Each structure stands twice: as structure tokens, then as C-alpha cells.
Amino acid sequence: MQEWVSLVQEIGFPILVSFYLLYRIETKLDAIHTAIISMHQN
User: Which residue ranges traverse the bilayer (predicted)?
Assistant: First the structure.
């Protein structure tokens, strides 16, 4: 059981941080995409 806890601590936290950062980047890319599309239409 201790092996699983250490595995989650070592691997789970970096995965969680990576998914969080990818989500933040995705929302910013969506905003940039929307801005470019609106500029192109004008």
C-alpha cells in the first residue's frame, strides 16, 4: 500500500499540474482564436 501512495505522490501531482496548465493554455488559445476571427471579419 505504501508503494501506491508514493507512486501517486510522485506521478499524480505532476500529472495534475500538467492538466491544470493545459486547461489554462486552452482557454487562452480559445480567446486568441476568437479575437483573430473577429478581426478577420471586420
Answer: 6-23
